[in-house]
């Protein structure tokens, strides 16, 4: 039944929320991913999402590369393809994990089209969103953002900058959903995780993020615009794409909006970040 599908999605999120509030230091994820150099790579997994959403750092977090000396690699222009060994309990398999830039510029879209055109398409997608806390990599984008916010008559502040990014994120997700449907890749897709990243920056607002990213069980008309697209993409669970929407913090740090505003402080200690990350792994492990 429709409502149950979204109830389940909400329950999985709620578990992460609870662990973020009360970390259980003894908990361990049952799945391990490791970057490897050689070998076959079946089971392609794509990490999608807007520029600056946290895709590259999320991959580094997934393969456990984020230690005390970690420095984020900066803006990536091209598609990144990694051979990855996935170990769940006693079994292991190789996957290629492809980090694909956002869908809204031609350049970026080409990378995703190429992935779909391989004939097999991804078996799983981790779609990265970040509640408006995109790192504004590109000076051109920053200028467009400033122009559009000024034209709208809004003051330039955290709220208007985040709203601008959220609108872009929504448009990007719409394009992704359409491409998956039109290319037929949706029929091959076995799972989708919406990774609500950088949650260390907005943990105090996590309930509002949950309401934005998860369709409302039993009440389609109450969905947020993002929820509406997600509901359509997954056909309320009827198209056999397994779905989770979960918060994740790959790398806690203060956020620079990039336009001269005060930084947004991160709100996580190490135990909280580890607990939420572990839960993300547990969920990912169920799908692999
Ligand atoms: N606070 C916080 N910042 C993050 C997190 N993940 C990434 N970032 C920051 O966001 C920037 C962009 O991330 P990146 O993965 O390079 O974005 P991409 O363009 O989607 O690949 C990084 O340089 C980090 O500074 C996170 O979980 N929390
Ligand atoms: Mg990147």
Task: Describe this protein's structure.
The protein has 288 residues and is α/β, with parallel strands linked by helices. The protein has one domain: 3-Layer(aba) Sandwich (Rossmann fold), CATH 3.40.50.300. Helices cover 42% and strands 17% of the residues. The protein is built from nine helices and seven strands. It has a seven-stranded mixed sheet with strand order 1-3-4-2-5-6-7, with helices on both faces. Strand 3 (80-88) and strand 4 (91-99) form a beta hairpin. The longest helix is centred in the middle third of the chain and has 26 residues, at 158-183. The radius of gyration is 18 Å and the shape is globular. Bound molecules: guanosine-5'-diphosphate (GDP) and magnesium ion (MG). Residues 49, 51-57, 72, 76, 135, 197-198, 200-201, 249-253, 255, 266 line the site of guanosine-5'-diphosphate (GDP). It comes from Fodinicola feengrottensis. Residues 69-88 are annotated as: Disordered. This is ATP-binding protein.
Task: Describe the protein's topology.
Elements: H1 2-21, E1 31-36, E2 42-49, H2 55-62, E3 80-88, E4 91-99, H3 106-117, E5 124-129, H4 139-152, H5 158-183, H6 185-188, E6 191-196, H7 206-213, H8 225-234, E7 242-247, H9 270-287
Parallel strand pairs: 2-4, 2-5, 5-6, 6-7
Antiparallel strand pairs: 1-3, 3-4
Helix pairs in contact: 1-9, 5-8
This protein binds guanosine-5'-diphosphate and magnesium ion.
The site of magnesium ion has 3 residues, from helix 2.
